[in-house]
Predict the structure.
Amino acid sequence: MEALQIILAGSLVAIACGLLGCFLILRKMAMVGDAISHAVLPGIVLAFLFTGSRDSVTMLIGAGAIGILTTFLIEFFHKKGRLQTDASIGVTFTWLFAVGVILISVFAGKVDLDQDCVLYGEIAYVPLDLWITDSGQIMGPRVLYITGTVLIILIAFISLGYKELFLTTFDPAYASAIGISTAVWHYLLMGAVSLTTVASFESVGAILVVALLIAPPATAYLLTENLKKMLLITSLLGVVISAVGYYLAAWFDGSIAGAMASVAGLLFMLAFLLSPTNGLIAKHRRKKAILKPSGV
Amino acid sequence: MIKHVDNPVLEVHDLTVSYDRKPVLWDIDLTLPAGKLIGIVGPNGAGKSTLIKSVMGLTPNSSGYVKLFDKDLKQVRDRISYVPQRESVDWDFPASALDVVLMGRYGKLGLFKRPRKADRDIALDSLQKVGMDAYAGRQISQLSGGQQQRVFLARALAQQADLYFMDEPFAGVDAATEKAIIEILREMSAKGNTVIVVHHDLQSVTQYFDWVILLNMRLVGSGPTSEVFTTELLQETYGGKLTLLSDVGDLIRRERFPNREQFDKAQKPK
Amino acid sequence: MDTFFEFFSFADPNIRYVVIGSLLLTASSAIVGSFTFLKKKALVGDAVAHSVLPGVCLSFILYGEKNPIILIFGAFATGWLSLILIDIISSHSKVKEDTAIGLILSVFFGIGIFMLTIIQKSGNAAQTGLDQILFGKAASLVGNDLIAFAVIAAILILSVWFFFKEFTLLAFDEDFASTIGLPVRAIELLLTTLTVLAVVIGIQAVGVVLMAAMLITPAAAARFWTEKISTMVWLAAIFGAFSGLTGAYISYIAPSMPTGPWIVVVISTIAFISFFMAPKRGILYRMNNQRKIRRQINDENILKALYQLGEEEKNFYEKRTIEEILTKRKFDPASLKTGLRRLKREGYLGNESGHWSFTKAGKHKGQRTVKLHRLWELYLTQYLRIAPDHVHDDADTIEHILTPELETRLEKLLDYPTVDPHQSEIPYQ
C-alpha cells in the first residue's frame, strides 16, 4: 500500500513535469526550467514562514509568482543590463537559490524544511503525511491531492491551449504574424512550470525536478516525431521511472528521488542507443547500408 | 524612381526601423498596387527582411506608420499571410506536413477552438496545390529543403488571404521547386492577390516580378519592373553604401540617442 | 564584534589556513570562469559542477575513506565525462545542446544523490562530512586538504597566466585563432580541463549546487566595469576572493551555516551593484545618460527657436518673451523654463526682467543647430531620394547628434550648399 502510494505520487510528479518539459525542450528553454526550479526556493520558504503551513494555496501562488519573477529578472538583466543570456540565467537562479538555503538555515526552527529535503525531497514520507479533515476523517496522503490537482490543471491547460502552445513553440514569428501573442503563452507556460515545480518540490527536490522536466521528454523526442505521441510517451515514461526508481531505491536503501533520476537517465541512454528511428545504432546501420548497397 | 499608386494595398509612411537603436531602414515611403507579384531586391544587410517584418509588426518601428488595405494591421490580420524564412524554425520539431499546414487555419479559428473537418480539407487542398498531398502525413524533419518550403507555402495558401509576404522563399530550394513555387505565385496574383517576395537573385527578377522594390538601407526605387530594374538604379542600390549614413547610425547606437524626439512629437509648427 | 577582530587579526593559524584556502579557491575559479563566461559557455560550468558528485561518491565507495587526492580524481573523472557526454548527445542526435546540458546535469546529480544516500546509510563512520560537498564548508579547509587544493589553485592561476593570449583569442574569435595556426583544439581542451579542475577544488568552499555561480557571477560583475580582458580577469579574481573571504568568516562565526550560499549571496550582491552602478555599462548610468540627452535636445531646440525668430526679423540679439519662443515651437512649459535657466547659467542666454536674448555663444550654437538641420534635410533629399516634405522629422533628431567631424564631411559631400530643400538659407559662420 505504501509502495503504491509512493509510486503514484512519483508518477503524478513525473507526468506533470514531463508534459511541460516537452514544450520546454522544444523551445530550447531547458535551462530556464532548471533556473525556475531552483529559484522558487525562497518563495517556498517565505510562504512557510508567513502561513506556517505547507499545504496552503498561498504557498503555491507565492512561489509561483517568484518563478515568473525569475523569468522577468533573466530578461531584465539580458535586455536592460545587456548581459548575455546564459550568464543572466546563471546569476539569477544561483542567487535566489542561495537566498533560499540561507533562509532555511536561519529559520531552521520555524521552517519544516532542511537542506537535504531541498535537494532531493522526501517522497518516502508521502504515506505518513496524511490529509485529515476538520471532522477528523483521514483522506489519505496530502501530496497525492496536491500533485493530482496540479496535474489536472496542467492537462486542462495543455489541451485547451494545445494549438497555441504548438504554434508559438514551432514558429513564433508566424504566430505573432497571425495575431497570437507569443509573450502571453510564454508567461503562461512559465507560470505552469513554476506551479508544477513548487508542487513537486517537497516530493523530489529542486534538482530532481529538473531531471523529470528534461530527461523523459528528451527520451520521447528520440522515439517519436509527433508531438501528441511525444506527450503520451513522456507520461508513460514517468510512470515507469517512478515504479522502477522506487524498487531500485528500496533494493539499495538509497534516495528514491535519486534513483528515479538515475532510471530516467538510463532510459534516455537506451533510447539514444536503440531508438528505431533516431538511435545511434540504427543510424550507424543505415549509414552502412548506404555505403554497401545490397547485392554488391 | 519611386512610383506611388492610388488605393494601395500597402502604404508605408516615413518608416524608420532600428536594431539596437541603429537605423537599418531610413524614412521609407512606399505605396504598392493590388494584384501584383512584387519583388524586394537589394544586397545583404539592406533591410529587406526587416521591411516585411516591420510591416507585419514583428519588429518595432522607430517612426512612421504602415497601412494595409488602408487600415491598421490589427483590423485586417486575417487578410494577410506571412511566410518566414525557412531557417527560422527548427525542422526537427515533432510535427507532420499536415500539422504545419493546419497552422494556417489557426488565425481564423480563434482561441481554444480545434481545427474541424472543413479546416483539414482546406489544408489538404493547399498541400495538393503545391504538389505535396502525398506527403501530408510525413514528418517535417524527413522533407527536403524544397519540400519544406512548399509546406510553408501551403500553410500560407490555407490562410486564404489577399496579401502575402514571403521572406526568401527561393533560398536553398531545388530548381524544380523554384519553378513550381513561381507558378503558384503567378496564379495567385492572376486571381487578384498581391504577393510580396524578398528575393536575392538578380538574374530572375525581370522574369518573375511585375513590380520591383530596390532597397539598401533606404528606398532606391519602387515601380514596374521595366521602369525600375535599370542599370543605373541597380548601381545605386548595390554600388557602395552611404558611409555617412551608416556612420550616423553607428553614432546613434553608441551614444544611445533616440531615433526620434519622442517627447515633443506632433507639436512642432508646420 | 570580538569575533570579527579575532578573525581578521588572523592570529589563529587555523583561521589563516582557512582564509588562504578560501581566497585561492574562489579567486582561481573566478579567473578560469572569466573565459567560460566570455565563450558564452556559462551553463556548461553548472553541468560540470553537478556532475562531480557521483565521482566523489564513487571514489569514496571504492577507497573507503576521504582522501582528498582520490576524491579529486573521482570528481575530475565524472566532471570530464559529463562534458564528453553532452558533446556526444548534442552532436549525434537531434537533442539540442541546452537539453543535453540539463539532462546530464540533473541525471548525474541524481546518481550522485543516490550514491550519497546509500553511503550515509552504510554505517561507515568515515563518511561524516561527505555531504558538506553539497553546500560547501570553508572551515574544513585544513592540513593536507589545504595543501592539495592550494597546489591545484596555483596551477590554475599559472596556466591562465601562461596561456592568457591564447585563451583570449579563443574566446573572442575561434575561427581566426585557427587560421593563424593556433592549435585550437588543444587550447580548448586545456581550458576545459582547467574549468573542470576549478570546479573540483571550488566545491570545497562553495559546494556543488552553487558552484556555477563562482564561475559565472564574478566574471559577469567584472564585465560591467571594463572593456579590457586583463582588467576584467583581475577584477573577477578580486570579487571572487572577497566573497570567499566573507564565506570563510561566516563559516567561522556560525559553524552550522553552509558556506556556499553566503559566498554566492555576497558575489551576487557585488554583481547587482555592478549591473546598476558601473560607469558606462551600468543601468543607472545609461538612464542618466538618456536624461542628459533629453536635456541637450531640449536646450538646442530652444536656441534653434530663438535663432529662427532672429532670422525672421533679421535681428538676432532682440529680447524675446517665452510666448514668442512658443510661437516657433511647442515646448513643455516646465522643461522650457528649466532649459532657459540652464542656458543662462552656461552663458548662452541673457535675461532681463523676463526677456531672453542671445549671447554671442548662444547665437553661434543656435545657428549651428539650424545649419545641421538644413544640411541633413538636403542630404536626405539628395542621397536618400526622400520627398522634401518628409525630411523634417528625421532632421529634427539628427541635428542634435552630428559631430563637428560629420558636419565637415556633410558640407564637403554636398559641396557647401547655400539653401535647403525648402529654399531656406543655410547659415555659415
